[in-house]
Automatic annotation (TrEMBL):
It comes from the Eukaryota. It comes from Chlorella sorokiniana (Freshwater green alga). This is TOR kinase binding. Keywords: Kinase, Transferase. GO terms for molecular function: kinase activity. The keyword Kinase applies.
């Protein structure tokens, strides 16, 4: 038996084991009774097939504009005003930032 034939035989045996182990269900805490929740299962199916439900429309574009534009802008303005308030209370000159009053 040549080295190549031996390697092929080992590969065949390993492939057979991997295929048989692939479909075994393993549980970490024993054989617990599982009761499927219909709503969780439906949500999981919808999540797996989200590309079939997604639509570009005015509602989607509005959500994208709010979460990608207005929310970061509001956070930035809040941070700048907090820095300016602290600087004013400490009697320091306000720092120059994008969106400062200067």
């Amino acid at each position: 038996m040549s080295l190549r034939q031996a390697a092929q035989a080992v590969c065949r045996q390993l492939k057979g084991r991997a295929a048989s182990l692939q479909h075994q269900q393993q549980r970490a805490a024993g054989n617990l009774p599982v009761k499927p929740n219909k709503y969780v299962e439906d949500w999981g199916v919808r999540r797996e097939h989200i590309e079939n439900e997604f639509r570009w429309d005015a509602s989607t574009l509005t959500r994208i504009a709010i979460w990608a534009g207005l929310v970061p802008y509001a956070i930035y303005v809040g941070c700048v005003s907090e820095f300016n308030t602290v600087d004013t209370q400490a009697k320091r000159p306000e720092r120059e930032m994008w969106g400062s009053s200067d």
